[in-house]
Amino acid sequence: SSNQMWGGRFAAGPDAIMEAINASIGYDQRMAAQDIAGSRAHAAMLAKAGIITDKDAEAIREGLLTVLSEIENGNFNFSAALEDIHMNVEARLKEIIGEPAGRLHTGRSRNDQVATDFKLWVRDQMDAAIAGIEALMKALLSQAEAGAEWVMPGFTHLQTAQPVTWGHHMMAYVEMLARDRSRFMDARKRMNESPLGAAALAGTSFPIDREMTADALGFDRPAANSLDAVSDRDFALEFLSASTICAVHLSRLSEELVIWSSAQFRFVTLSDRFSTGSSIMPQKKNPDAAELIRAKIGRIFGANTALTIVMKGLPLAYSKDMQEDKEQTFDAADNLMLALAAMEGMVKDMSANTESLEAAAGSGFSTATDLADWLVRALNMPFRDAHHVTGTLVAMAESRGCDLPDLTLEDMQSVHEHITEDVFGVLGVHNSVASRTSYGGTAPSQVRAQVARWKDL
Ligand code: ARG
């Protein structure tokens, strides 16, 4: 049998393979609530504009609510023959209310309909991402507040660089996440224009009120150009690229947690709730959540790449290629939210092993820069010379298998005669971090100021 939506033009129905490649109902049923909200707004507007009767609009409204509850209660029969969520909803509406259902699509096309539904869906995900990021920021802020004074090694090249504070390290991620959040907020503002009423591509000859439907759906205004409105998927691309960058940050933190929780580092203990064991090695406690979050970037960036490539080269206006926008975006959104929630749980639950952190902070000649800075300050040495003297002292300590504070004053003076006892005051890790009071630095006082700045997020 031919299609009930366009059967007039068609003598035969689609091949089974055509139906399989064409149907999106398997995934776009996730936009049912958005589709029904869009249709309700459209129907109410059609009545207000005198395009359909109030009586028909009321029947449509009631019928759509019935369809929605059927879907929500899981007793809706989705049909692949009806392709997508739009036609499934409309066909069911027709079964329930009869003739008025056929008036709903006046002055509208599936092209503006799908753009509207998808935008509403993505807009919710922007909000969910913002909320998930904020929850994680809070977990990191508590860690930072608790550990504003705990010293740990700071690395460059994953080699000991200078001591930093635990709180400082946590706050670095708060800054990254704050930028992630602002990317979602910014994209949300830009995307919040309604495609509804753009119709197929050219607008409509019916006296529709696009302001009214835009307003009803929480959009700031109608999209200004009907060709653009049905062709635009920038909002999904922005969501995916903001998600990609956020996932990069989550992946970097995950990598650190994997390293830090190893027996060789012992910087943190992850909770049992976010770890798994081994079926053969009884001692194992694996940081699986961190590893999986580290991997999520793969599919999120994959979705970003896939949709970017789908969109490139498409002529205006709608092409069916654009149906491929949804699965990727759904998958990326699901996995971003999951990764944010898992990271929040892990960060909340993890405990820093302050003794291991402190011991590690002092190893690897981590205060060599403090020694060089002391030579500059106390002896008025040019920094380059101080660097050289300190390097010689590091080499001496290394050859003796000890750390810088273990050298004697005589050892020091054999390299530079004017070094005094005072130098030992700067070789401790606590002095080192406390001295780094420049704005944004690692000193506990600066970390507390950083935490205070994010108090209200
Ligand atoms: N299922 C389609 C999609 O997701 C809806 C729009 C169909 N429009 C059309 N002209 N065939 O893009």
UniProtKB/TrEMBL annotation:
<dbReference type="InterPro" id="IPR020557">
    <property type="entry name" value="Fumarate_lyase_CS"/>
</dbReference>
<dbReference type="Pfam" id="PF00206">
    <property type="entry name" value="Lyase_1"/>
</dbReference>
<keyword id="KW-0456">Lyase</keyword>
<dbReference type="Pfam" id="PF14698">
    <property type="entry name" value="ASL_C2"/>
</dbReference>
<dbReference type="InterPro" id="IPR029419">
    <property type="entry name" value="Arg_succ_lyase_C"/>
</dbReference>
<dbReference type="InterPro" id="IPR000362">
    <property type="entry name" value="Fumarate_lyase_fam"/>
</dbReference>
<protein>
    <recommendedName>
        <fullName>Argininosuccinate lyase</fullName>
        <ecNumber>4.3.2.1</ecNumber>
    </recommendedName>
</protein>
<feature type="domain" description="Fumarate lyase N-terminal">
    <location>
        <begin position="8"/>
        <end position="302"/>
    </location>
</feature>
<dbReference type="GO" id="GO:0005829">
    <property type="term" value="C:cytosol"/>
</dbReference>
<dbReference type="InterPro" id="IPR008948">
    <property type="entry name" value="L-Aspartase-like"/>
</dbReference>
<feature type="domain" description="Argininosuccinate lyase C-terminal">
    <location>
        <begin position="365"/>
        <end position="434"/>
    </location>
</feature>
<dbReference type="InterPro" id="IPR009049">
    <property type="entry name" value="Argininosuccinate_lyase"/>
</dbReference>
<dbReference type="GO" id="GO:0042450">
    <property type="term" value="P:L-arginine biosynthetic process via ornithine"/>
</dbReference>
<dbReference type="GO" id="GO:0004056">
    <property type="term" value="F:argininosuccinate lyase activity"/>
</dbReference>
<keyword id="KW-0028">Amino-acid biosynthesis</keyword>
<keyword id="KW-0055">Arginine biosynthesis</keyword>
<dbReference type="InterPro" id="IPR022761">
    <property type="entry name" value="Fumarate_lyase_N"/>
</dbReference>
<keyword id="KW-0963">Cytoplasm</keyword>
<dbReference type="InterPro" id="IPR024083">
    <property type="entry name" value="Fumarase/histidase_N"/>
</dbReference>
<comment type="pathway">
    <text>Amino-acid biosynthesis; L-arginine biosynthesis; L-arginine from L-ornithine and carbamoyl phosphate: step 3/3.</text>
</comment>
<comment type="similarity">
    <text>Belongs to the lyase 1 family. Argininosuccinate lyase subfamily.</text>
</comment>
